[in-house]
Write the structure tokens for this entry.
Amino acid sequence: LTEDYSSLRKNIADKYVDIENQLVGKFFEALQASDVKRMRLYASTLQQFQHGSAQCMNNYIGHHIHNMVQSNPASSDDIFKTLETRCAKVYKQMTEVFDNP
């Protein structure tokens, strides 16, 4: 009987992780589409999961850093001029997506 419960607990834990990963994937799709409404929905839902909020935030920050690096080559003289503007824009969107950025 104990073995049956152990197996059930493992199945539930596996399903929990699977659902969390699917939701994080949906968040990333919304992020790539710049769909703030969907990003907020998935970020809010993922707050109920153990690692969900952190994964969303990591994806969000990584996405914007990647875009910033791609659009401003290291040799560019104006990288610092655009950095403040980009950070302000990203922060504004972060406050729209996340409850506690």
